[in-house]
């Protein structure tokens, strides 16, 4: 099957963060491709990837990077596809550097930026974008939300049963 979601990252060291986006694609049965692409270290590869992704059938790109995280914005400047940026947490600045590098795009070249380290939401957003054109997938998204609500209500029932002190002990 042709991959519909491109998940790219500046380094293999981003994979522990970005794996959550891959897992969401798998959970929803959406084919994704995973690639290490760096604006800084492999600029020609980045240009090629960004310019060709839509021609290969990719519909949404998720781009994660840390520190001077130029990858998502540069890819967005080179593709007509929607780009979702994931600020990868960093040791020295806890990912605030990544967030600021990704989120403050000039008008005209948007990057839909999720919270620091939240590749799961990037995956979900990509799935929801695809779901606008796939009724079956839209139903799966609604089911996912239903399951989420039910898990919260199960927690509430347990909290009511145990009281907060006991509940705290089993967290
Ligand atoms: N921010 C970028 C870009 C880019 O934006 O092109 N390329 C690599 N990096 C980031 O450098 C960090 C450290 O990388 P290494 O662990 O390989 O030294 C990673 O978080 C990566 O995303």
From TrEMBL:
UniProt xrefs under SMART domains: AIRC
Sequence positions that bind substrate: 11, 14, 41
Pfam families attached to this UniProt entry: AIRC
Reactions catalysed: 5-carboxyamino-1-(5-phospho-D-ribosyl)imidazole + H(+) = 5-amino-1-(5-phospho-D-ribosyl)imidazole-4-carboxylate
InterPro entries: PurE_ClassI (IPR033747), PurE_dom (IPR000031), PurE_prokaryotes (IPR024694)
GO MF annotation terms: 5-(carboxyamino)imidazole ribonucleotide mutase activity; lyase activity
Known role: Catalyzes the conversion of N5-carboxyaminoimidazole ribonucleotide (N5-CAIR) to 4-carboxy-5-aminoimidazole ribonucleotide (CAIR).
Designated name of the protein: N5-carboxyaminoimidazole ribonucleotide mutase
Organism (species): Amazonocrinis nigriterrae CENA67
Annotated gene: purE
């Amino acid at each position: 099957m042709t991959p519909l979601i491109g998940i790219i990252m500046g380094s293999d060291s981003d994979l522990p963060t970005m794996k959550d986006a891959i897992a969401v694609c798998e959970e929803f049965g959406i084919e994704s491709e995973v690639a290490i692409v760096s604006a800084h270290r492999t600029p020609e590869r980045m240009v090629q990837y960004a310019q060709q992704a839509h021609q290969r059938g990719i519909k949404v790109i998720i781009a994660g990077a840390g520190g001077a995280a130029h990858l998502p914005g540069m890819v967005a400047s080179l593709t007509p596809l929607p780009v979702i940026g994931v600020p990868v947490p960093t040791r020295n600045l806890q990912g605030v550097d990544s967030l600021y590098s990704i989120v403050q795009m000039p008008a005209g070249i948007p990057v839909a930026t999720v919270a620091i380290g939240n590749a799961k939401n990037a995956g979900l957003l990509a799935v929801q974008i695809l779901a606008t054109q796939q009724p079956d997938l839209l139903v799966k998204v609604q089911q996912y939300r239903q399951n989420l609500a039910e898990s919260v209500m199960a927690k509430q029932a347990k909290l009511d049963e145990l009281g907060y002190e006991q509940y705290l002990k089993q967290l």
